[in-house]
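Homework help board

Subject: predicted structure for assignment chain

Our instructor gave us this sequence and asked us to write out the predicted structure in token form, then describe one feature. I got the tokens but I'm not sure how to describe them. Can anyone check?
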Amino acid sequence: MIDVVILAAGPGKRLWPITNEIPKCMVRVMQKPLLQWMVEGVFPYARKIIVVVSAHKEKVIAHFEKTPFAGKMVFVEQAEQKGTAHALSCAEKHVENNFVVLNGDNFFEPSFYDSLEREAQEQNWFLVGKRVSDKSAYGEIVEENGVLKELREKTGSQAEGLINTNAFFGPKKFFEFLLQVAKSPRGELELVDAINAFAKKEKVRIVEQTGYWNDLGYYWNLLETSEFALRNLMQTKLSGTVESGVHAEGTLHLGTGSAIKAPSRIEGPVWVGENTVVGPHAFLRAGACIENECHVGSSEIKNSIVMSKSNVPHFNYVGDSIICEDVNLGAGAIIANLRFDSKIVYSEIQGKNVSSGRRKLGCVIGAGTKVGINASFTCGKLIGSNCKIYPRVFIKNNVPDDSIVME
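My token output:
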């Protein structure tokens, strides 16, 4: 058995406003936190699972205390955000021998964890890479005959290539290399620098992940991962009530206490959580994930996540968007998910205009926000938590937390 270290201390600023209420590692895919997908995957063969936490750590710890995984889990706080190398060093005293380190904001399809165990049994150090069509947003792997030569930071190149997932298997002595890391140009202690130094002394194999992987840096990555999970990991389960007269096709998960009222149309894969009411006259299209205690009325939802206790009740359209907890959309509120010129949607993230790479992308509406009737939202906008958007307002820019928008 091996030790597993999961780096889950990042605040998730690029996922604002979702991470106002939810730690980045606890963002949910089919209502299961990212971190839990990872813990479930490594649990059968992990001696110990060391989770490095910081932001909202109490919420992370409280969640896992109630799970069957608690006995193997140790939580270590990174009190000051000094970078990924520093985060890993916080776990040193709990690591006894060879170990795997994973990023807690990554999603690997579950079969990856079986292959990870097999590779670790070989007792040869390795780094997991993923071949992508556009490597511009990721650190690049330079390899020769399957052996790591160098990790490079983002080059901006939009070419196809092998990128770093930061899933690494190494020995206890690797912690010595963390002590030698100097601050990077952005002022942080980077894990990639320690891996580069280690690779000059030891052979590090490249293991290529051929299955699904995503780094949930932006909200559209969460939408992509949710869509993958619904299409490939969800099975039909009908624990609620589907009234006669509902047209349902494709895969449908319907939780306990939930009801789909006629006449409504479901085009799966669609997830509906517990104690949620859908319809009458609702249209849930492929990729819709509606969590617990929601109400979706005579509205259309496509490839979107509606988090718990939110309402999309009357003549709303929600496409390729994320509606956070306890949000209410007034009658006729519409979220656009396609630019008028059909070009790629950009979103302002931390003051930078970032390409989503997608032609269809809607908005994020933060927890506790109330939206008036006939309000409209332009593609790619972020609306903060606890806002009040008045009737007939047209949102063309991001909206900060706690704002009141009247015109």
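Reply (TA_rk): Your tokens look well-formed. For the description, you could write something like this. DSSP finds seven helices and 38 strands in the chain. That's the kind of observation they're looking for.
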